[in-house]
C-alpha cells in the first residue's frame, strides 16, 4: 500500500470516527452527521479500490481518476455551503421575526404597566 492511499484511508476513517464522536458529544446534529458519514464512507470505498475509482471516472468521461475525487470533493463542498446558506437565511429571518415580536410584547407590557399606574393614581 503506497503512502498516498494509506494517508487517504487514515484521514477518511479518522473523519468517520471524529463525526461519530461529535454526535455523541452533541456538538453535531444527526442531520448533518449523515452527510459527513456517507462522504467518509464514499472516500474510503474509492480509496480502497482504485479499480472502482477508475471505472467511475471513465464512465463520466474523466481520464485521470484522481480528478474525479477532486470534482466530487468540490461539488460536495459546494452543496454543503449552499445548505448552510439556506439554514443561515432561515435562521436570520426567524431571528428578525422574533425580535419584532419581542418588541411588540415589550411595548404591550409597558402600555399595560402605564395603565395600571394611571388607575392607581386615579384611585389614590
Automatic annotation (TrEMBL):
Q: Which domain of life is it from?
A: Bacteria
Q: Does the keyword Endoplasmic reticulum apply?
A: no
Instruction: Print the keywords alphabetically.
Output: Coiled coil, Membrane, Transmembrane, Transmembrane helix
Keyword Coiled coil tagged: yes
| Alphabetical list of Pfam families matching this protein | DUF2304
Family matches, as InterPro entries: DUF2304 (IPR019277)
Q: Which residues form a coiled coil?
A: 88-115
Residues that span the membrane, as ranges: 6-23, 32-50, 62-82
Its name, as the record gives it, is DUF2304 domain-containing protein
Q: Which organism is it from?
A: Geomonas terrae
Q: What is the lineage of its organism?
A: Bacteria, Pseudomonadati, Thermodesulfobacteriota, Desulfuromonadia, Geobacterales
Amino acid at each position: 500500500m503506497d503512502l498516498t492511499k494509506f494517508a487517504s484511508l487514515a484521514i477518511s476513517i479518522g473523519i468517520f470516527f471524529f463525526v461519530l464522536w461529535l454526535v455523541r458529544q452533541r456538538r453535531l446534529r444527526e442531520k448533518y452527521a449523515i452527510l459527513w458519514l456517507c462522504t467518509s464512507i464514499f472516500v474510503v470505498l474509492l480509496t480502497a479500490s482504485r479499480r472502482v475509482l477508475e471505472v467511475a471516472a471513465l464512465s463520466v468521461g474523466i481520464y485521470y481518476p484522481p480528478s474525479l475525487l477532486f470534482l466530487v470533493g468540490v461539488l460536495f463542498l459546494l452543496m454543503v455551503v449552499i445548505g448552510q446558506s439556506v439554514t443561515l437565511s432561515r435562521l436570520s429571518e426567524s431571528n428578525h421575526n422574533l425580535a419584532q415580536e419581542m418588541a411588540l410584547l415589550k411595548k404591550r407590557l409597558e402600555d399595560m404597566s402605564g395603565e395600571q399606574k394611571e388607575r392607581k393614581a386615579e384611585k389614590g
